Each structure stands twice: as C-alpha cells, then as structure tokens.
Amino acid sequence: MPNIVVVGAQWGDEGKGKVIDLLMRDYDYVVRYQGGNNAGHTVVIGEEKFILHLVPSGVLHKDKICVIGNGVVIDPRALLEEIALLKRQGIKAEGRLFISEEAHVIFPYHKTIDDLKEVKQGCGKIGTTKKGIGPCYADKVARSGIRMIDLLNDRIFRERLKQNLDEKNTILKTLYGFKGFDFDEIYTAYAGYRARIRNYVADTSLMLNEAIRKKKSIIFEGAQGTLLDVDFGTYPFVTSSNATAGGACIGSGIGPTAIDKVVGVVKAYTTRVGEGPFPTEFSDTLMEKIRKKGKEFGATTGRPRRCGWFDAVLVNHAVRVNGINEVVITKLDVLNDLDRIKICVAYKYKGKTYKNFKNDVDILSLGEPVYEEVPGWIEDTTRIMSYAKLPSNAKRYLKRIQELLKTRIVLVSVGSDRKQTFAR
Ligand code: IMP
Fold first, then answer.
1. CA of 159 to the centre of ligand 1 (A)
2. How many Cα neighbours within 13 Å face the side chain of 87?
3. Domain check: are 93 and 223 in the same one?
4. Residues 195-204, mean pLDDT to the nearest whole number
5. Are 133 and 278 in a shared domain?
6. Label partner for 172 (CA 20 to 30 A): which of 135, 188, 408, 423?
7. pTM
C-alpha cells in the first residue's frame, strides 16, 4: 500500500478518526505527527464509542503499530489515562504504541498560562482547548522545552524543570498575579509518569525509516485541520502546529519522498470550534438544526461547534497547501432534511471578488460569501450502502463539490458507524 497522509481540509472535526480506522485494515503503522490532547477523534464500532485524543485512531486494530511522533506535544497524565481507558475497553496499547523521544512534554504551567492568557485577552481570545498546547509549542521554539528524552534523564530533567519554573513562576506572578508552581510537586508527579511511560519511548524516526525500507505501509494521521494550521490557517485563530500534510515529515522524522498520497477529509458542510472568522456561518435557526442533527459538540471540550455551509474557497485552499489527491466526504446525511443547499464559491469584499482564499481577517470576517444553490434530497441516506443508491440530488451535490475542488471524491460517509461508508 502507498504511504498516505490523512488531513482535515477544514477547521478540524471532519471525521478523520473514522476514516483512518476504516483505511487502517490495509496498513501496518499509524503515526500522529502534530497537536496534542486538544484533538478528539471519535470512532464508533457497533455499540461502542471510542474517543481518542493522543493515541492514533488506528489503535483500534489490535495488530497495528501506533506511533506518537516528535511533532506531538504530550501531557503524560492525559496519555496514561487514555491508555488505561482503552485497556478497559479491551484495547491494549503496550508493546505496539511507541512515543518519540523527541516529543515535547506538557507541564501544569503550560495549561495555566494557556488559561490565564485567554482570560486576559478577553474578547480577543482564541478559544483554545486550554490543554497547554500553545505554551508548550512556544517553549519548544524558544528552546526551553522539555522532551521525552529529557524526562527520562533525571539530572537533565531536574535542571530543565528548575530553569523553567524560575522563568514561568516569575511570569505567572508578575503578569497574572498567580502564585506559581512548586518544584517538588511537579517533579514527583512527573517522575511517577516517567516510570510508567519509559517503555513506550523510542527512536520513532529510526523505527519508521526502517519500516519504510522494509516496504511496510504507513498512515500519517493529521489532527485538527488545515484552517487551524499555524502557517496556513486563519491566524491568529489557529492551533500552534502544522496540521497540514507537510507537518507529517517534520513531525515524524521521515522524508517527503516517503509519502505517496494525501487524502483530505471534508465534511459535507463546515464547522468550527473556538473564535475566529467563519464566512459561511449559519444564522441561529439553521445552526441549531444542523448542530443537533450532526451532534456538533467538541469531543475534547464539549463546546457547541459553530456550523455553516460548505465553503469551496476554504477547501480549495486546503487542496492546494496539502497537495490533496483524494477527498473523503463525511456526514452527508446531516443535510438530509434541507430543501436547498448552498455552496460558497467566492467572497466579495469592498467591490472585489475573491475566488482564491486570502488569509486576511477583514476579508474573511467582513466579506460576503457568494453562493451557488443546489436542490436538497429530503430523504434518509443513513441506510444507504452504495453510491449508486444515493438520491440523485445528493449525487448532484457531490458532483458539484468534486468539480469545484478538481479532486476525486473516493469515499462518502453517511453516519458514524464503520458500515455507513461507501466508495465512489
Ligand atoms: P489549541 O489547539 O487548544 O491551542 O486551540 C486553538 C484553536 O484550535 C481553538 O480554536 C480550538 O478550538 C481549535 N482546536 C484545537 N484542537 C481542535 C480539534 O481537534 N478540533 C477542532 N478545533 C480544535
């Protein structure tokens, strides 16, 4: 099988977890390459629901190797809890889950800074998940972060933790009036996590390159989505990592030549959690209806997701910056009851029409979306098992999306279960 990257082509929550779980049958390895436990991937198998935050979605296939790459930031406590929960659900990670020694570690001060910074920013806040993601990546780039390999080395860990606490406690006290953190408390907790995590830590770049040499097949699993990417997303309302396909190389220690294909996961409409521009956002009535039908509540924070029409301008941007070769459309069934369906094909701002995405907050928040309308299908699609059986207007909608994206739609999903998916 070719090595593929699976990315979200909107603002995250496109259903990547389900798609990876489906594709995983044919693959040997699955690698998370960025983000942290801000992600929430939901996979439904029969009656059972699994919500994964850090562990790659492929873990539900019991014979597959799972890797958390160097590009991920890891809250050890959250990771251990997730491993324990999976174990209770009958999924054993030991012996087949490996964590990069170069992955950076999230500490309590990261979470507190994330929280206090948001409060201080007031209405300019980003609406983060408050999991400490941004502050941990900021430390990584500032070269003061603590990696897994540092946590395993007691001397280095003590030194770095002390340096960090000196700095963070000063910031916390002077900028936010927060009392600060105690060295012994954090040291003891993290020494405990270290003992439980040690056996998972490995040189995962070496491991993956050896796997590639042996012609093993790999899925690189993106978290969040293209419009949350720190470079290509709606900055500053983004996460702090590269959720786009290029991040797969940087975040797992493999070269671009090892990647054969990029699959973009696209929801049949658009959603976003947190603050920031959203050109095709619904008005209240439609918002409530689609949110309820699509169960659009964050898998990590439980926050209601904002919902809107499909935006071809955004997704085309995602197709370009990721080099998406194939598209998977998810949650088509959520649109079942609509008379007419809109597709955004451009934005109008100050008399000018923008057909290509422009990363300008004014255009994205004050611009008017230009819509095309197609008729809805008013028919239940959740029991449909093949593309041929879809109502003709649903096919028409998909065909138009494919034309606008100039990229092949290969899979369509009409419900959360593994079975509610078919090839096109
Ligand atoms: P952070 O990643 O917690 O720093 O949050 C930054 C922005 O990304 C916020 O708008 C979050 O709501 C959003 N975000 C982070 N992770 C996800 C995700 O997995 N799905 C959707 N939005 C996310």
1. 31
2. 10
3. yes
4. 97
5. no
6. 188
7. 0.96
